[in-house]
Write a structure and sequence with these properties.
Length: 252
């Protein structure tokens, strides 16, 4: 009689000794891919991000990614100029698919297997998002890129990141930004801005800190999911974060 199929061990049980987090969700803004002229995708930046992601993947970290579309089209900006909000948001979702495909191409040129999963059905270019399938891809060592947000207007990609992280059992959200943590004011405009080493979810909500939108923060709070905010521009920071180094600001 054949043996019963074994149940995959939880991610935490398979964690390599060097890792603090074995399954993470990385939230990238579309602006992270922006070339100097401020629009579209910079191939050199894309390659640099993909190279760093490969280094993290080689550590044995199960890596999921949600990427925004602000470098191509931002729904809120379109709505502010008179567009129907739902239509503008759907356009923004399509922009995230473009970025997801670009990142997939950059990773696979580095021999890293990936899957793009879209919340909006477009089967010629991406798999439909199915939670169990996404989890299985992660277990098999593939980087999973979630595109098209939640598939619903009026929800940001920050909320999509929180939702997908909870659904696939990520241990942390890594929020990559252009500054090295959370400040009480914009450090690019005020030299006296104070950086926080750690914050509670309630602190972020009460202080109206622009880390993630309130829906995303509340979802993380309800599920005890920590958020690490750090500077993507410093090479190696993603690797440092998954290994447990103290970088940026942690919200927990």
């Amino acid at each position: 009689m054949s043996a019963a199929p074994s149940t995959p061990a939880p991610a935490a049980d398979r964690k390599p000794a060097s890792l603090r987090y074995s399954r993470v969700l990385l939230k990238l803004s579309g602006e992270a891919l922006t070339p100097p002229q401020g629009y579209g995708i910079d191939p050199d930046v894309l390659l640099a991000i993909a190279t760093e992601l490969k280094e993290v993947h080689q550590l044995g970290c199960e890596l999921a990614i949600v990427i925004g579309g602000g470098n191509i089209f931002r729904g809120l900006a379109g709505s502010a100029r008179g567009m129907d909000r739902a239509s503008a948001d759907y356009m923004g979702m399509l922009a995230t698919v473009i970025n997801a495909l670009a990142l997939q191409d950059a990773l696979e040129r580095l021999d890293v297997m990936t899957r793009v999963m879209s919340a909006i059905s477009m089967q010629q270019i991406a798999e439909p998002y199915i939670r169990r399938r996404a989890t299985r891809h992660l277990e098999k060592g593939r980087i999973v890129i979630f595109a098209a947000g939640t598939g619903n207007p009026f929800f940001t990609t920050d909320t999509a990141a929180s939702l997908r992280a909870v659904e696939v059992g990520a241990e942390v959200i890594l929020k990559a930004t252009t500054v090295d943590g959370i400040y009480d004011a914009d450090p690019k405009q005020r030299a006296d801005a104070k950086k926080f080493g750690e914050l509670s979810y309630i602190d972020v909500l009460n202080r109206h800190l622009k880390v993630m939108d309130s829906t995303a923060i509340s979802l993380c709070m309800d599920n005890g999911l920590p958020i690490i905010v750090f500077n993507l521009g410093t090479h190696g920071n993603i690797k440092r974060a998954v290994m447990g180094a103290s970088i940026g600001t942690i919200v927990h």
